[in-house]
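job 3f2a | input accepted
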Amino acid sequence: MTSSTPALPSARASMPEIWKRSLIAILGLGLSFAAALFSTVTRDSGNVAATAILAGGSLLASVWVGMTTVPYLARRVVSGVRWQIRSILK
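job 3f2a | predicted structure (90 res):
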């Protein structure tokens, strides 16, 4: 006996690439911000090693987001602006 219900598409397959990249950027920058806040807390408590690790991690996370997701998102914005300008000039 077989089931007649269709298979549901996976969430990963149905999500457009721009939304994936945007969510990665938001999560990465949120992680970077949290690490920066915790580095301030550890600095105030006098833990220099934890401060250095958290501050470095914050910097690396924000650089990673900047190198991986921002160029893709910027290209999308530029292509959208070009399309709008062409449609206005016609």
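job 3f2a | Residues 17-45 form the longest helix (29 residues).
job 3f2a | closed
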